[in-house]
Structure formats: structure tokens, C-alpha cells
């Protein structure tokens, strides 16, 4: 079959791209190797920047977000047993929203269904062909094992870090810059009311901990663990005990409850450039990864896609290639700001094996907790730089 844009990967980037293109009359086919139920259940990010919320609302995706999303006007920073509230509205006049990536994905799939968007789930063996020509195409087997081919004017690679799109750009044409961190996060989802109004980012001698949430009944918590940690090493009791120590604060205690999801998340910074090769364009995790501390991964996927949808609109409706030509540099400018902020938050909040580094990071955290000027800068970055 033939379409205007073949979209590889039905994560938030691919699904939002299909949605925005549909709204400007551009046809696409989405190809996804997992099942729909898997995509709708996968637990990932939880924080939307103000700008991401504005994008989703303007795209007609705001109904459930407005009802169930929780607006947060700040965060707590904790250092040892000291805890300070940072007020984002005072700092920069913006806020963030707690609304899980899982919910964003469900809303996007529901909108795709309502509009008759073609999404081929559970495909396998996909490969991209002739991406540097005017006639690129994708081959794959559908969920019944039948051989399929989609021809398109443009292929959008939104298939995440482990996808096939980034490797479809010849190595000689790509540069990769990356940084590994010597720690990972153990994340849990628990059926218990959050014991805090805003998220708590805590730096403790024992390691970093983050108190987040998904709703008034569901908490999401994270612990710094060594890179490569096995999830089996952490019983529920051990997790709650460790969380209680890392969030210890006079007169306050956390709420415990049944753990309904538990996993270890690796941490890296990774940037592959450029995000375009001929008629193949990349967006989201297929091109870049940030460590989760700055809550930027999902927001970057959304901002890439906004830039890309705008560029494809100009290309297909006005035959104007200027925005698609500048897409790699436009996206990279935003990406590098988020990459720096995520690195900065990560190193400031995590405990290192190196004593000199630890003193610097602890000093930086004390400075931020005591300076409204530093807090305004954190707020500006955390709530998201304007588009
Ligand atoms: P993805 O969500 O990865 O979507 C890619 C899609 O492509 C997937 O559906 C995948 O199944 C599909 N796919 C892969 N290969 C192929 C193929 N060959 N053919 C077809 N389809 C394919 N960010 C935060 O800010 N905070 C967090 O707490 C946080 N937690 C995370 C936890 C985990 C386990 C992971 C992996 C990421 C987390 N992130 C977090 C990052 C955030 O979730 C991502 O930045 C975001 O999902 C990026 O969206 P995406 O659509 O680009 O990629
Ligand atoms: C969540 C994840 C993050 O990485 C973060 O910085 C804040 C919240 C979350 O999953 O809720």
C-alpha cells in the first residue's frame, strides 16, 4: 500500500505524530511490533510540562487530561533531613501536570480509533529501504505473518531507543554522543495515596529517592540503585524500609501499600545526530535518551513531534522544505537544553562514589535550596522552555 508518511513505532511520539498529521489532512500508516494491550499497559513517565499540556489540549486530546490530570505548582527538594518547597509559579509563572504516559498513549489510541487511523499492531521483521531516495518503503510481516510493504514519501522513525530506524542511517553519516551513569532507578507503582502534595526529590547519604504519583490513590516511587541491579534483590519490605530512610523528615511519614509494578530502569544520556537522513526523520527516544531525573523524556518526544508535524505540513501542503531542512537543528537546540538540565538534576541529586564529586553536588543542592534565583532557573527548565 501507499501513504504519505509511514510511522514506525506507536509510542507517544509515533501516535501523536499520526494524530497531528491527520488533523492537517496528511495520511499516515503506523507500524508497531507490540500488541495494543501491551502499549496501553506499559508504565513509564508521569510528568507533562506546561507546553506539552498545551499541545495535547490544542490537538483535542485534553478531555480526560483536564479531568484526571493533577496540576503541580512546584516540587520539594530534600537534602538529608531538610526539605524545601520550590514554587514554580513564583519562579517562572508556569507549572507541570501529573498525567501518566500510559494515559496519554490510551487517549491517543482512542482518538486514532475514532478517526479510522490505520495502526498495524504486532508486526515483525520490519526493515526500511531506500530512505535516501524519493521512494522509501517499509517491509514487514503483519500479525498473521503475511508479507507487507508500505511505500511513503517520508518515513518517521519513532520506534524508541532499541528500534530499527536510527541504525537505518549509515554509521558514517551519524555521530553519537553519550554518557553512562554508574547508577540506575528501581521504580515501583503502589496502591496507596501519595503522602505529599508535590513530588519530593531527595538526596540522602544512602542514595537518591523520588516520591511521585499517578492519582490520588496510586503512588510512584523510585530509588537510586547500582547500575545493573537485579529487581529480585528488592523485596517489597526492603523497598519500603529504604524509602522510609531516604525520605526521613521530622513529623512526616510515607504511606505504604500493595506494590503493583516493580522494575529497574537504566540511566544514560545519548544523542544521535542528525535526526534526518534523506526521507527518514527520527523523533523521540529513537534519536535521544535523557536520564529520568529531569522528567524530560516524554516531553522531548512531544516537542520533537510538534516541530516535525509543522515541517511535514509545510512540505505536503505548500511544497515548502525549509522547516524539514531545519528540523534537525531546531530539535537539537531544545534537546541539548533538556540534556544539560537532566544531567544537572541527575548529578546534583544522586550520590557518587567519588568524594570530591559528592561535595560539589551537595554544595550545589544546598545552594539551590537556599537561593530563589537558582530556584527560578530550575523552575524554568523543569516546567519546560517555551517552544
Ligand atoms: P517509546 O515510548 O519507546 O515508543 C517506541 C515504540 O516503538 C514502542 O511502542 C515500541 O514497542 C515500538 N518499536 C520498537 N521497535 C520497533 C520496530 N522495530 N518496529 C515497530 N515498532 C517498534 N521518562 C521520564 O521522563 N520519566 C520516567 O519516569 C521515565 N520512565 C521510563 C521507564 C522506562 C522503562 C523507559 C524505557 C523510559 C522511561 N522514560 C521516562 C522515558 C520516556 O518514557 C520516553 O522518553 C518516551 O517513551 C519516548 O517516547 P517515544 O514514543 O519516542 O518512544
Ligand atoms: C516521574 C518520573 C521522573 O523521572 C520524574 O523526574 C518525575 C516523575 C514519574 O514517573 O512520576
Automatic annotation (TrEMBL):
<dbReference type="Pfam" id="PF01494">
    <property type="entry name" value="FAD_binding_3"/>
</dbReference>
<dbReference type="GO" id="GO:0018659">
    <property type="term" value="F:4-hydroxybenzoate 3-monooxygenase activity"/>
</dbReference>
<keyword id="KW-0520">NAD</keyword>
<keyword id="KW-0560">Oxidoreductase</keyword>
<dbReference type="InterPro" id="IPR036188">
    <property type="entry name" value="FAD/NAD-bd_sf"/>
</dbReference>
<protein>
    <submittedName>
        <fullName>p-hydroxybenzoate 3-monooxygenase</fullName>
        <ecNumber>1.14.13.2</ecNumber>
    </submittedName>
</protein>
<feature type="domain" description="FAD-binding">
    <location>
        <begin position="2"/>
        <end position="342"/>
    </location>
</feature>
<keyword id="KW-0503">Monooxygenase</keyword>
<dbReference type="InterPro" id="IPR050631">
    <property type="entry name" value="PheA/TfdB_FAD_monoxygenase"/>
</dbReference>
<dbReference type="GO" id="GO:0071949">
    <property type="term" value="F:FAD binding"/>
</dbReference>
<dbReference type="InterPro" id="IPR002938">
    <property type="entry name" value="FAD-bd"/>
</dbReference>
